[in-house]
Every structure is written in structure tokens, then in C-alpha cells.
Amino acid sequence: MALPVPRRTLWITFAWFALLVVVCYAPVLKVMVGQWNSDPDVGHGFFVPPISAFIVWQRREELLAVKSRPCWWGLLLVVLGGALLIAATMGVELFVARVALVVTLTGIVWLLAGTAVLKKLTFPLFLLLFMIPIPQVAYNRITFPLQLLASKLAGNALSVLGVPVLREGNILELPNQRLSVVEACSGIRSLLSLTFLSLVYGYFFEKKRWIRTVLFFSTIPIAIIANASRVTFTGIASGVSPDLAEGIFHESTGWVIFMVAMLILIVLHQLIRRVLKFLPATAPAALE
Questions:
Q1: What is the reported pLDDT for 288?
Q2: What's the predicted TM-score (pTM) here?
């Protein structure tokens, strides 16, 4: 059994490893940050590392109370991360290189601090995966069905509201405007950001894991409905003026709809908690 590592030695070792990670992954980090800045779909990536770091800092007393016992199994993860980085660099595969960064960080924690600390840092390490843009192949497979679904729901909603509309795929033909539900309007941006925020919200405001899980998966229908509502609203606004279907007004409606989606998530959480209060005393315990 490995002996506990002195706290000062542990932090110095962590600092050296952190420096090496920054040096080795500098090109990967530079490209990834550039994509956060240029691609609105992954703009939430800027918030992922600070939030993960804040969670670690918030639990610092709990972490410091755990005796750090180095685990050599972590070295295997560090080696695996390095191998993935080399393979990704040779094959120009950005997604694998970015995953290698998270694998390496996980391995370092496991190697230097041990299994007990790794378990306590599982959540902030998992959150780091949300800073990684999804591969383009997967992105295309997700966005096109979302485009069709958003256009279908919006077309049905416009018909119910009495707005004449003809849908052809992801194209909505309106009396004085043709709306094209492109990739940017597929809702993938809301879905990615909302799933990340649902995890963070659940971590800070809910202790029951099953409720956190419900909130996480509820982001899928919420994001879909919210995006379809945005397309519907755009269709109605275009009847007033075609200029309202694009530009600053169109972008601002996206932010408003996203905030409404987040509000719906919070309301859903509060409803679940209120329903639990009315259940028999034994029911909540069984759902823990």
C-alpha cells in the first residue's frame, strides 16, 4: 500500500505536471479556444474550465481531508492520453486530441492523489468533456434531423395559429417569406449549452441523483420545443416585416428563447420537488 504524500510535495508535483500538460497540449488548446471564439455552437466552452475549477475549489477542504495515496494505475491513463495525442496529431484528428487532454488530466489526478481523490473529482473532470466540440461527422448526423424536426413542429404551430405555410423538408414557404431552417437554427447550440447547464444546476441545487438525471434528459425535449418556438416566432414576425427574420432581432430572440428554456428547466425542478412533498413519507426514501 502506498504511503500518504505530504501536502506540500503533492501540490508541487501537481504544478509540475500541470506545466507539462500545458506545454504538451498547447497546440490543441489554442485551436480549441479559437473554435470556442468563432463557433457559437460551442461558445459555452469558455465557461467549462472555470466552473470545473470552481467546483474543485469549493470542495477543497473535503479534498484536503482525504489522505493522498498515489496509484500507479493512473500512469496507464497518462500513457494512454499521450498515445492518443500522438496518434491524433499524426492523423490530424482534433476530437481525439482533445479527449486525450481529459484522459491525461484524469490519469494525473489518479496517479498523484489516488483513487479516493479521483472519485471526489469525477464530476468536475466529467464536465470538461463539454468543452470539447463534437466531431463534424456526428454534428452533421445530429443537426439535420433537428432541422427537419424544428421545421415540422414550427410548420404545425404556424398552421394552428392560422398562418398559411407550406413545408418542404427544412424550408417553410410563407405568404411573403421563405424561411430556411439551417444548421445554425437546428437547436444544437441550445441543446449543448442546456445539457451542460443542467448538470451544473443539478450539482449546486439538487442532492438526489435521480432528479439530476431527470433534469439532464429533460433538456432534450425542452431544447427541441424551445427551438421550434423560435422558428415559429420568426415565421410570425416575418409576416410583419421580412427583415425581422434575420439580423440582430433574430439573434436576440435566440437568447430570449434560451433563457426561457433555462427557466422551464428550473420550474420543472421545482415541480418535481413539490410533488415529492405530497407523496407518502416512504416514497421519497425509496427514490433516493
A1: 52
A2: 0.84
